[in-house]
Specification:
13 helices, elongated
Length: 437
């Protein structure tokens, strides 16, 4: 009996230890991941149990040399896409593969960027992190390096992609940019980016050298028939053209079809607003949207728009691009298409006979023509702050001429108020391109 009793006691002790081990492991893990005061936290679910973990502590644990090798082969699904982890013994780094990978940037609107594959290596460096990043698609590869700084409240990441052929960058989005089948893209780009987590703030600092595009057949647009009413040729140096440049694209005559400063400012403004509050497209890009790509608000459309803008700069030239834009731009109601229709509808005259203040008035409407037409019909005037801002920026005007422009705008209440056609009272919100009010 004594021997049997000892055996039962031994089995009971072993059973107790086996039952206690998971609890002890869970308590140990909980202690290791317990957030420090003020630390950025997240919730981890382990079966039926849930742990509140400090994110910096979790990152340090996952990238440590005694935990990272045990993550080899781990797979799980995230919002970005399926993640696959591997331990690279030779380089003592954790490799993370996301394929396909979805990147959501608030400054680009609701539509995400989708990469065929994104590979990142992670190595511990004292209190920070570092590694390499590779994005691949359609036989090309874009490579860079990154560094990370851990603090109690956030993780700051710095990405650096050196000069890379633009064609390789575009190849990442071949599935969404059909023009790549015939476009010939020259030039290089580099990118520096800063990301702060958990707030998701992103800073983009791109550089582009020698962008040139051909093969899209944009020369045919020079003689393309417009759906808008035709009229006399529009002088690209006339008062309406100059007012439109002041309103929509102040560096039109200098840039090569795109304006990185404006695109960056638009990205920052949209990120703060968490919606598309500002465009950033040049007149060349806007013309590409009007004639070819359509107004779909996606990153892919922006990439396509840039290709056509660069091609048109070479095949059409600035003057023809500006004239085509004026002939095709929407000016409020659907029936008001192009500058000729706008001059007739709003002022009962031709483009050539527009008064300077009338030209500025029309140009100031372009950032949001549906809204401004509705505002004019309801209140008797458009946004006067913006109109005055446009007037001050019209190139080729003396101080006296600008003063006369401002006075002419103040007489706007004497102009007739155009009635909106039936069914056109709906306000259509579009993103402003420029940095004005």
């Amino acid at each position: 009996m004594t021997r049997r009793l000892r055996l039962w006691r031994l089995l009971a002790a072993i059973t107790f230890v086996l039952l206690l081990m998971p609890l002890a492991g869970w308590l140990t893990l909980r202690a290791l991941l317990a957030p420090l005061p003020g630390e950025w936290t997240t919730q981890l679910r382990l079966g039926p149990l849930q742990i509140e973990a400090g994110v910096p502590s979790l990152v340090r644990l996952a990238t440590s040399h005694w935990v990272a090798p045990r993550l080899d082969g781990l797979q799980w699904r995230t919002r970005a896409g399926p993640l696959h982890l591997r331990w690279l013994k030779d380089s003592q780094a954790l490799a993370v593969r996301c394929a396909p990978c979805t990147l959501r940037l608030r400054g680009l609107g609701d539509e995400p960027l989708v990469l065929p594959a994104l590979d990142i290596t992670v190595q511990r460096d004292f209190d920070g992190l570092q590694g390499l990043v590779e994005a691949g698609g359609a036989g090309s590869m874009v490579r860079g390096s990154w560094q990370g700084e851990l603090s109690a409240r956030q993780i700051r990441l710095a990405l650096d992609i050196p000069m890379t052929p633009l064609a390789d960058g575009y190849a990442l989005f071949a599935a969404h940019v059909p023009e790549l089948a015939q476009a010939r893209i020259e030039g290089r780009f580099a990118l520096r980016a800063r990301v702060a987590l958990p707030n998701g703030e992103v800073q983009l600092m791109p550089r582009v050298e020698g962008l040139a595009v051909s093969g899209l057949g944009t020369a045919a647009l020079a003689g393309a028939a417009s759906a808008c009413p035709a009229g006399e040729p529009i002088d690209p140096r006339g008062i309406l053209a100059r007012a439109v440049i002041a309103a929509e694209d102040q560096r039109f005559w200098e840039h090569p079809g795109y304006d990185l400063a404006e695109l960056g400012a638009a990205f920052d403004a949209n990120q703060r607003a968490e919606r598309i509050a500002r465009g950033g497209s040049t007149l060349s890009q806007q013309l590409a949207k009007l004639l070819v790509t359509g107004a779909e608000r996606t990153p892919a459309r922006k990439l396509r728009e840039l290709l056509y803008a660069a091609d048109m700069e070479q095949s059409l030239g600035k003057a023809r691009i500006l004239a085509l834009y004026l002939e095709n731009a929407p000016w409020g109601p659907a029936t008001v298409c192009g500058a000729h229709a706008a001059a007739h509808h709003y002022f009962g005259t031709s483009v050539r006979k527009l008064q300077p203040a009338q030209a500025v008035w029309l140009a100031a409407m372009l950032h949001n023509p549906g809204l401004e037409a509705s505002r004019w019909a309801r209140r008797g005037q458009i946004d006067m702050v913006r109109a005055q801002w446009v007037a001050r920026g019209v190139p080729g005007q003396s101080r006296q001429e600008r003063a006369r422009l401002a006075h002419g705008l103040m007489q706007a209440a004497l102009w007739r108020v155009p009635a909106l056609p039936a069914g056109e009272a709906r306000v259509v919100h579009v993103a402003a391109r420029d940095g004005g009010p």
